[in-house]
């Protein structure tokens, strides 16, 4: 009996171990199947569309690359097929959409790169595809319809003129990228023949291939006072009691900080300090902030963070902590020091403020369609993150409106649209006379809604005299003024 009991226990133990192993393998199998399904639905297109995927090169053997179009129906890129079957990629607007649309020679960039998979697959009628296959003919690839507005792009392109810089325009309520201009630029129609010269002329960030809208890192200057103000509001509910006596300069440690052109603003509160972009007041404000909290807040507004955009980009930089010196804090508070930001990032912060604190994920592909215009896939707006509470956003909207009604953005007052924003003049060298011109803001009408625009003009000087007029040209075109 004892022997039989031992045998039963042994069998029970073996069965239990077998069951555990069986369940383990079943669990692994289910997990693998789940990941396979997830990959197929959510990630496969990312991997297929990777520039490192050699398989994409074979798609062009069977498909004529589709067109890229603007939101207002203009063709931005198309493949011209010659009588001998040769294919040439043609860009009707040349340099104007160089960085936004990209190029398809000597590699790819812009929409031509991250939209590559969509352009090289065909959703023509299946019988048509079958006949073409039998005849050895190529099928026509799908078209990408973008969120870019050709008229608005033209206005931004003309506004920059022959100056280096960038202009970005977003629709805050959706995240649609309406305009993206970067200069200096290039002609994607001739880039293949000029490639060696372009590469030889590359000088770091000065290359014409650099998309300054997403890859250009600049000191934000006074546009950064938006963040300094928001942190001050968080730490000081009694902000209305703030006063400062501006004499045109302030000394912090061994550093002397001046207001622009040594302006003397006199006695001012927080609102006046912001509207007049008073450097001495904001240096004073910065010294009173909780430095660790300020750094945490800036990180929550995407500094030192990844950005949710398809274009190649550089992360904005913010270097401040509890151990930072007073000089570093004062410089950071006015948008100088080691802080660097891209125009796209600043446009996203501005768009979130205009959208009650909610940042919508920026996107530039609205939908894809086959060559006969039948929609294949739509890309819907999606919320990325809540950057600010609605009350904070509303308060900042008031401050930004003051800049236009009473401060450095007054050139935007009295229009058919209601504008708000912040100017900036960011020093970038030891020569105090050299500065980048900034503007970031938004405008609205009841009929057309809201558009956010950010402008950077390299070595442009004053934001109010250079960047604001450029933004006004974009606003005027958008609202039909």
List keywords for this structure.
5-stranded antiparallel sheet; 481 residues; alpha+beta; 17 helices; 39% helix; 20% strand; Beta-lactamase; globular; 6-stranded mixed sheet
Condensed summary:
With 481 residues, the protein is α+β, with helices and mostly antiparallel strands.
Notes on the structure:
The protein is of the alpha+beta class and 481 residues long. It has a domain at 221-364 and 381-478: DD-peptidase/beta-lactamase superfamily (Beta-lactamase). The protein is 39% helix and 20% strand. It is built from 17 helices and 19 strands. The chain has helices at 2-48, 55-59, 98-101, 110-114, 116-119, 126-135, 150-160, 191-200, 212-215, 225-235, 270-275, 279-287, 291-300, 326-333, 343-354, 390-406, 463-478, and strands at residues 63-64, 68-69, 75-81, 87-90, 139-140, 143-146, 165-171, 176-183, 244-246, 249-252, 255-258, 266-268, 358-360, 365-369, 375-378, 383-386, 418-427, 435-445, 449-457. The strands form six sheets. Strands 4-3-2-6-14-15 form a six-stranded mixed sheet, with no helix packed on it. Strands 8-7-19-18-17 form a five-stranded antiparallel sheet, sandwiched between helices. The longest helix is centred in the N-terminal third of the chain and has 47 residues, at 2-48. The protein is globular. The termini are far apart.
């Amino acid at each position: 009996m004892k022997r039989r009991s031992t045998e039963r226990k042994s069998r029970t133990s073996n069965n239990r171990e077998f069951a555990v192993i069986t369940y383990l393998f079943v669990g692994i199998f289910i997990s693998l199947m789940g990941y396979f399904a997830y990959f197929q639905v959510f990630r496969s297109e990312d991997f297929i569309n990777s520039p490192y995927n050699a398989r994409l090169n074979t798609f062009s053997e069977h498909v004529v690359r589709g067109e890229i179009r603007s939101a207002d129906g203009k063709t931005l890129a198309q493949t011209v097929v010659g009588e001998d079957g040769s294919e040439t990629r043609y860009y009707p607007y040349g340099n104007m959409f160089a960085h936004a649309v990209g190029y398809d020679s000597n590699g790819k960039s812009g929409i031509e790169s991250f939209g590559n998979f969509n352009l090289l697959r065909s959703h023509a009628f299946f019988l048509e595809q079958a006949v073409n296959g039998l005849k050895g003919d190529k099928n026509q690839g799908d078209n990408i319809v973008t969120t870019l507005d050709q008229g608005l792009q033209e206005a931004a392109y003309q506004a920059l003129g022959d100056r280096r810089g960038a202009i970005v325009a977003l629709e805050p309520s959706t995240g649609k990228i309406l305009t993206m201009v970067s200069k200096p630029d290039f002609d994607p129609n001739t880039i293949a023949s000029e490639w060696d010269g372009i590469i030889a002329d590359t000088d770091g960030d000065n290359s014409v291939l650099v998309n300054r809208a997403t890859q250009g890192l600049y000191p934000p200057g006074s546009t950064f006072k938006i963040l300094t103000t928001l942190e001050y509001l968080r730490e000081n509910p009694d902000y209305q009691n703030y006063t400062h006596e501006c004499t045109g300069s302030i000394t912090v440690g061994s550093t002397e900080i001046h207001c622009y052109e040594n302006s003397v603003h006199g006695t001012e509160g927080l609102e006046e300090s912001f509207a007049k972009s008073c450097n001495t007041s904001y240096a004073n404000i910065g010294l009173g902030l909780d430095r660790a909290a300020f750094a945490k807040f800036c990180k929550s507004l995407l500094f030192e963070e990844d950005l949710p955009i398809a274009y190649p980009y550089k992360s904005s930089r913010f270097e401040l902590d509890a151990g930072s010196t007073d000089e570093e804090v004062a410089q950071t508070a006015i948008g100088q020091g080691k802080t660097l930001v891209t125009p796209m990032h600043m446009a996203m912060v501005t768009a979130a403020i205009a959208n009650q604190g909610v940042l919508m994920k920026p996107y530039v592909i609205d939908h894809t369609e086959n060559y006969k215009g039948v929609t294949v896939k739509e890309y819907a707006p999606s919320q990325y993150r809540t950057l600010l509470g609605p009350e904070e956003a509303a308060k900042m909207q008031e401050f930004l409106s003051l800049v236009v009604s009473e401060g450095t953005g007054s050139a935007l007052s009295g229009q058919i649209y209601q504008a708000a924003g912040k100017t900036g003049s960011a020093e970038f060298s030891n020569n105090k006379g050299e500065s980048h011109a900034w503007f970031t803001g938004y405008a609205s009408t009841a009929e057309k809604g809201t558009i956010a625009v950010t402008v950077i003009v390299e070595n442009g000087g004053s934001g109010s005299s250079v960047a604001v007029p450029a933004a006004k040209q974009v606003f005027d075109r958008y609202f039909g003024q």
